[in-house]
Amino acid sequence: MKVPNTTWRIRKGTDWFNESAQDYFSGKRSLVVSLPGAFTPI
Predict the structure, then answer these.
(1) Segments making up each domain of the chain, as ranges
(2) 0.70 surpassed by pTM
(3) CB atoms within 10 A of CB 5
(4) How far apart are CA 25 and CA 27, in angstroms?
(5) Interior CA angle at 34 toward 32 and 2, to 5°?
(6) How far is 29 from 5, CA to CA, in rounded Å?
């Protein structure tokens, strides 16, 4: 399965950057895991 090419907000230090999934995962084998937040609304 491929990760859709979306843009994510990535924090590096104290700054925030827009980074595409293609740039972030290019040339890597990755496992993406998602968990619901404990105090987030449904």
Answers:
(1) 1-25
(2) no
(3) 10
(4) 6
(5) 35
(6) 15
